[in-house]
Amino acid sequence: MKILLAFYETDCRLFQGVNRHFDNKILNVFFRNITHLGGAKWTISAVLLLLMLSSGSVRRTAAASALSLTLSHLPVQFLKKIYPRKRPYMSLENTQFPSNPLQDHSFPSGHTTAIFSVIIPFIFLWPPISIILFPLAFLVGLSRIYLGLHFPTDVMAGGVLGSIAGIGSYNLFFL
Could you check whether the bond before residue 108 is cis, i.e. omega within 30 degrees of 0? Predict the structure, then answer.
């Protein structure tokens, strides 16, 4: 039990280390915008656009991303129901967060899951693009912490779930 408590305390400290910068106007504009790249509107639109406008291996990769995005959200919804973790702004004092925050459960981060599930197949298709896509996905995850909506472990779990779905979906289309 002491190990779990220490783990939770570390998670809280990491969260507070990021969230304490919430008053920075430049970071607010940046993170409030980049967070949307992991949202349903952006991820679904990007995948559908790539499916419609591409051909060959890029189109197959877009199909793998679409499958990955779909499959990755099944465990997200399941985990949110069996592990109803409160969002940080609901459970930690002095958490800063935007008006009208999300009300559902925190674990795992759906935005982080989504962005990783979409980018991973493209990274497998063309590894040099990882220089752009990994930092982008990392920033989406970081934005969720900065905005007071997720703990670091929520974001890490989302990254793992999205990556597993992306790898599996890419393999289905290309192996």
Answer: yes
Residue 152 CB neighbours (<10 A): 21
Whether the CB-CB separation of 61 and 122 falls below 8 Å is answered with yes
Directed axis angle between helix 130-146 and helix 25-34, to 10°? Answer: 120
Indicate if the pLDDT at residue 103 is higher than 80: no
Specify the 3-state DSSP secondary structure of 31: helix
Assigned token pair, 48: 């559908």
For 115-142, the pLDDT digits (tens) are 999 999 999 999 999 999 999 999 999 9
Residues 123, 71: contact at Cβ < 8 Å?
A: no
19-59 pLDDT, tens digit each: 999 889 999 999 999 999 999 999 999 999 999 999 999 99
Q: Which of 132, 149, 130, 32 has the alpha carbon at shortest distance from 158?
A: 149
pTM (two decimals): 0.95
Supply 70's token pair. 């779909």
Which two three-digit tokens encode residue 40?
């349903």
The CA-based angle 159-107-90, given to 5 degrees, is 130
